[in-house]
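Hey, weird one. I pasted the FAD:protein FMN transferase sequence into the form twice and got a warning about non-standard characters only the second time. First submission, copied straight from the form history:
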Amino acid sequence: MPQCSRYHFRFKAMGGPCSIQLYADSENAASLHAKSAMDEVYRLEAKYSRYREDSVISQINRVAIAGGDIDVDQETAGLLNYADAVWQESEGLFDVTSGVLRQVWDFKSGQLPLQSQLDVILQRIGWDKLIWKEGRLSFPLAGIELDFGGIVKEYACDRVRSICVARGIQHGLIELGGDISAIGPHPDGKPWMVGIRAPRKPDQPIAMVPLDRGGLASSGDYERFMLINDKRYSHLLNPITGWPVESLASVTVIAEQCVVAGSATTVAMLKGDQGLAWLTSLGLPYMAIGRDGQQYGDIATN
């Protein structure tokens, strides 16, 4: 094969640092490939950001808050079909209507919400409280909101990989705010080595994971939390109880698609004491770390 070099492009999107590493035969070629990839990330960010009034998710939520019906495009329908499948697989723990919990959980305040506040907000949570059928969303109960925060970044990783492959890239690594997709190994066949954060020292890797293709995602109780009376309250909130996860400290999963890896890590965290058994049943490579620091799984190398 022709001699190629590695080019590294850094940018910001979807609320965090992102990077694309590509092997190409020239810097100009790599830049063109990277621009197409970054444009796709920006497109998805604009389409599904809840911070933009003109986004698809904001359009949906305006209807949802009032109570009504709305037709969605094919791409959005695919994401909703996936959300529905994971909701069922997780027995309601992965729920794209649970984002409203942020209205009562303020992790900068250092104060816990009242149970009475949670009881009120929980009435507006539940994928089964809306109707999703043949590209049409119906909201019989006014006040529900959708949030694709647990899907879109991982989906973007998969889309970028597909775009790069279609452009002839055979070796590269995509990272969008910690969600990762490998296009292929280094040209010499060696895998990319991905550092996994130590839950209690997130600026340090606790292990290195080899990845030559597919997606990798992690979830942990270290990303956003507050300590009250020496107890950690994580931003990972159970949509059924309204309270944070309490069992595992972090989970990392490898899957063919990053979106699958991402939702698997979230569900495993939310399942608490049953998380490890559920992960094992999936048959996907994983590494989990308990709150006591114990490591489980089979993908880490020191």
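That's the output from the first submission. The warning seems to come from a hidden character in my clipboard, not from the data itself. The two ends are 32 Å apart (CA to CA).
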